[in-house]
Amino acid sequence: MNVNQTLRILSHWWGLCTLKEHYWALRTFMNRWQRSRSAGNGAIAAVISRDLRAWRGGDVSESDITDDMKQRCDAAAAWLLRGWKATADDGVSLGYFPCDGVEGDGWKPSYPETTGYIMHSLLDYGDTQEERRTEEIRSAVRRMGMWEAEVQMASGAVQGGPVVPQEQQVAAVFNTGMVLRGWEAVLAAGLDDATIQQAARKAADFLLNDMGDDGHFRSHGAFVRSARVKTYNVLCAWALFLHGRRTGEKRYCDGAERALDAALNEQEENGWFRHNCLDRPDAPLLHTIGYTLQGVLEVGVLAEREDAVLAVRRGVDALVEQMAEDGFLHGRWFSDWQPASFTACLTGTAQLAIVAFRLSQVTGERSYRHAGMRMVRFLQRRQRLDSGQPGIDGALGGSFPLTGHYMRFGYPNWATKYLLDALLLAQQGNSSDDPPHRN
Fold first, then answer.
1. 149, 151, 182, 270: which has the fewest Cβ within 10 Å?
2. Range of 95's domain?
3. Do 341 and 277 contact (CB within 8 A), yes or no?
4. Among 186, 108, 109, CA closest to 145
């Protein structure tokens, strides 16, 4: 990174809020830093120390890095299931955050949105296991699906944020789409249930009714910056199209294509998407960029839309061009595809790896698989297997280093979900010409 890029990031960051807000953000950071050094948090302190040395380019031992994708898949899936067992219900914990200063064991309450798309990932993983393990996973996923139906809002929507009592729920279209994706996976896997079928239809109807004439969804929820358009909501269209295909009702597929067209209208010539972030649309997270690219690609493939595949290629090609040789990608990007953060958003890196693998499958171009493998190899270095802390082993952190800007000092469940997806896809291709593992 050069001096001009550094100054641009710092100037942009400083202008985001007032001096008082910067003070409170720094104070929160320092409180978490101190907790990470407290008794009982030795494992996370070791991860932070190791991350910071690696981020600065220091000599870091990589003795536990392995090319054994199966071992890493097993560890990621086991962590997700520990997150499921850590809650008081059948949802999956939002994640492990031992430095937040909240009493307890570090595991957060259940998170409906991500429990939804974790169901899909666990079913894919279960298909690779021996019969007894597969049935254990399918049983757990079915319970997740039934829990999602229990907490679904009367409108068919899914609430934003961690689970709350019914009277406090606020509808969020993105969360609804992610749970619908999970329900469609459950039904496709033969775990047929009238309750889940009814819940899926209600969710699909909510999505259709929430869509404006311009193809954009409107109910963004209470946990993101208010804006008329959130381009990443196009990922909901994937679930909507699958619902239409399963039920044979074309109106859902047509709605998904309207959402696809709306997203394509937000893309610049260089592949960057406008209005594409939770909070900073001028410098979107790689995480929300990944949502958009995946949604456009998967709906494009289902609808046989070559324009959608080409749009995804423009976005992925621009990011791969900026990727470091070791697979590092910055966690935010300005509209000219210059980095807008110093640290990595690991969820976004995993999502981009998934899109790259899928592009390789769709187009037959091996260069996309190569790019995906570089990202997966980078993520392998971030996944700890031997810390001795069940909240850490197998998981992927929010940022690299762990103290970075996104979900800092912890392990959000969606990072590990996307790591699992990326690892599963990495094992599907021919590895004979993959880039070498770099220790």
1. 270
2. 45-54+63-429
3. no
4. 186
Do the domain assignments include residue 350?
yes
Q: CA 411: distance to chain centroid?
A: 12
Q: What is the CATH number of the domain that holds 216?
A: 1.50.10.10
Domain count, the chain: 1
Average pLDDT rounded to a whole number, residues 190-197? 90
Q: Look at residue 65 and tell me whether its pLDDT is greater than 80.
A: no
Output 166-169 pairs: Cβ under 8 A, ≥24 positions apart: none
Ramachandran class of 261: left when φ > 0, alpha when ψ lies in -120 to 50, beta otherwise: alpha
Rounded to whole angstroms, how far apart are CA atoms 23 and 29? 10
Residue 147 lies in a domain: yes
User: 67 Cβ partners below 8 Å, 6+ apart?
Assistant: 380, 437
**Residue 327 contacts residue 349 (beta carbons within 8 Å):** yes
The stretches of 109-193 forming alpha helices (DSSP H) are 112-126, 131-151, 173-188
* Cβ–Cβ < 8 Å for 311, 269: no
294 assigned to some structural domain? yes
255, 243 contact by CB (below 8 A) = no
**Cα 369 off chain centre by:** 19
d(CA 332, CA 171): 27
| 158 phi, psi to nearest 5 deg | -110, 140
Contact 374, 316 (CB under 8 A): no
pTM: 0.94
Per-position b or e across 332-353, b if 16+ CB within 10 A of its CB: bbbeebbbbbbbbbbbbbbbbb
Per-residue HEC secondary structure of 93-105 comes to: ECEECCCCCCCCC
And the tokens for 159?
Answer: 């609430």
Q: Which residues contact 345 (CB under 8 A, 6 or more apart)?
A: 285, 286, 287, 331, 332, 398, 399, 404, 405, 406
Contact, 317 vs 384, CB < 8 A? Answer: no
Strand partners, 273: 267
Distance CA 189, CA 127 (A): 10
Structural domain includes residue 29: no
Q: Is 265 exposed, middle or buried (0-12, 13-18, 19+ CB in 10 A)?
A: middle
Backbone angles phi, psi at 27, to 5 degrees: -65, -45
* Helix (H) or strand (E) run with residue 353 in it: helix 346-363
Token pair recorded at residue 301: 């493939």
